[in-house]
């Protein structure tokens, strides 16, 4: 913080960055030249960005995507997101190897998650992980692993073996997240109107 203040004093200027999801409530006095006079609209992540966010969120999460292939019939984005719905099928069966398979799975999941924010995409990975843990706990309870003397062996308890997230787990989490997404088509239309008319967001 001290370095930042010193740098601003030396340069003789201070840059203030602010964010809001209600630009219509901003006082016009704040938007006058010399104040908050540069406005940038940050849209929700597109399909490519969501795939990248998924890849980053899964780096520390055991998963099986490198050994799976997405379903042949790809999800069609809802009419509320026409720019994505018009695009052709994501990925192809061409290309072998773990990286190629994982990439196709990520692209397929990204296509299904149209309309989600970056935070919601990250949250769905956590949700899928929790689903796996809950299922594993129920499985152990059903197998009689409630008491210490009946605990499974170390090999059976390895996270990469017992708690790996599958494509089906992530697909279920995506479906649940899409049903509860907070960014609605009405909200996007509102922001687009502000952006295109150039009054406050450009």
Walkthrough of the structure:
This protein has 202 residues and is mostly helical. 47% of the residues lie in helices and 0% in strands. The longest helix is centred in the middle third of the chain and has 25 residues. The two termini are 30 Å apart. 20% of the residues are buried. About 10% of the residues have low confidence.
Helix content: 40-55%
| Distinct helical segment count | 8
Number of strands: 0
Q: In angstroms, what is the radius of gyration?
A: 23 Å
User: What general outline do the C-alpha atoms trace?
Assistant: elongated
Biggest β-sheet strands, sense, barrel: none
Distance between the termini: 30 Å
Residue fraction in strands? under 5%
What string, H for helix and E for strand, traces the elements in order? HHHHHHHH
Instruction: List segments where confidence is low: pLDDT < 50 over at least 5 consecutive residues.
Output: 73-83, 85-94
Produce the secondary structure layout.
Elements: H1 2-11, H2 47-57, H3 82-85, H4 98-112, H5 118-142, H6 159-162, H7 167-179, H8 185-197
Short description:
By secondary structure, the chain is mainly alpha-helical. It has helices at 2-11, 47-57, 82-85, 98-112, 118-142, 159-162, 167-179, 185-197.
What key attributes describe this structure?
202 residues; mainly alpha; 47% helix; elongated
